[in-house]
Design a protein that fits this description.
This is DUF695 domain-containing protein. The chain is α+β, with helices and mostly antiparallel strands and about 350 residues long. It has 8 helices and 17 strands. The strands form 4 sheets. Strands 11, 12, 13, 14, 15, 16 and 17 form a 7-stranded antiparallel sheet that branches. Strands 1-2-3-4 form a 4-stranded mixed sheet.
Length: about 350
């Protein structure tokens, strides 16, 4: 038996208190109530109780239950692709108890265990994942897909797009869609050289293997460019440079650091380069799990450290305090809510 619930977003809630209240209810009675509902005993009471607790965090979140891999069941609370709520669903999961043989927890929809068995019903139309295909284009770390299903012509355009996202979530899981899939479209016509949609897992796995380490941590790449007046820009960025790598880091903190030792092109000279690296390491240690440097770029005698931090913590003020000792000029620190990491989109590869 499976359950899911969706509602529309709202705001103005104390998320920390609501998350803590959710997990207190879950450990005291919610887990047992939900297990009983899965077994067929009073599912309506469970749906109402679970919906009430998730609504208290934010009604824009959706929840669903499904079979786990190492646990019997998995409870999923997801933002349904809403980047503004993605940090909230991640904080919900970060506060979860450890998985046990009965329950595991996820803030994203997981891929279907057997994707060939997936059948979606949109209106009166059944769409089996096994009949879907895709036109796939890989550009750097981004995979653009146009999805086709033989029954798309029976659906209006908005329903085709909804079905496309649901099929991708079923095949790849929300996390891989957020991280590796770029442009998404639906088509009533198959591609000239289509790929079975179920084979998209192998494409994503290949791109992921090329751009992350064995532990799943992002790689870093060097980038070169020019300023509008022809000056040199040297940058380095994590790959993939996506909010899905750390969804709870929802606040952009640009740190503009002037340096004294620079080349004729305005890039760091040896003395300043050592100091800049030390500063970056200092901020990394200072922030811990509350923030990270995701990229930096140097030009015209300044280095911009692109940081993202957890806006519910004092991390931004820690950054301000952490740069006070810089002695090569006045450091500027900004703060901007940016859950989608749009401020570093120009550095994505």
């Amino acid at each position: 038996m499976s359950f899911l619930r969706r509602k529309q977003p709202d705001g103005g809630r104390d998320e920390h208190s609501a998350i803590a209240a959710f997990w207190q209810w879950w450990t005291e009675s919610g887990a047992a109530l939900t297990a009983e509902a899965i077994a067929g005993r009073d599912p309506d009471a469970m749906v109402g109780a679970l919906s009430e607790r998730v609504d208290a965090i934010d009604p824009g979140l959706a929840w669903e239950l499904g079979p786990g891999s190492d646990s019997s069941h998995v409870l999923v609370v997801t933002s349904e692709g809403n980047p503004d709520l993605r940090p909230l669903s991640r904080r919900w999961r970060m506060a979860a108890p450890a998985a046990d043989p009965v329950w595991a927890y996820s803030d994203v929809r997981l891929p279907a265990p057997d994707v060939q068995d997936v059948v979606l019903r949109i209106g009166e139309v059944d769409l089996d994942a096994g009949s879907a295909s895709a036109d796939v284009r890989v550009s750097g770390t981004q995979i653009d897909v146009v999805v086709h299903h033989p029954r798309f012509p029976e659906l209006p355009e908005d329903a085709q797009r909804t079905a496309t996202f649901l099929l991708l979530d079923a095949v790849l899981g929300e996390a891989d869609v957020e991280t590796w899939v770029g442009q998404i479209a639906a088509s009533e016509l198959p591609a000239l050289d289509p790929v079975p949609l179920v084979a998209l897992r192998a494409v994503v796995a290949d791109v992921q293997a090329q751009n992350t380490g064995p532990d799943g941590e992002p790689h870093w790449v060097m980038l070169n460019g020019t300023t509008p007046d022809g000056g040199a820009i040297l940058a380095s960025a994590q790959v993939p440079l996506r909010a899905s790598t750390a969804p709870h880091l929802d606040t952009y903190v640009p740190v503009v650091v002037p340096f004294g030792d620079h080349t004729e092109q305005g890039l760091p000279g040896p003395a300043s380069l050592v100091a800049l690296r030390d500063l970056e390491d200092h901020l990394t240690v200072l922030l811990g799990e509350s923030g990270r440097v995701v990229a930096h770029q140097s030009h015209d005698g300044v280095r911009i450290l692109h940081l993202y931090v957890d806006g519910t913590t004092p991390a931004a003020e820690q950054v301000r305090a952490g740069v006070v000792g810089w002695d090569q000029g006045e450091v500027e620190v900004g703060v901007q809510l940016d859950p989608g990491w749009t401020s570093v989109a120009h550095l994505r590869t």
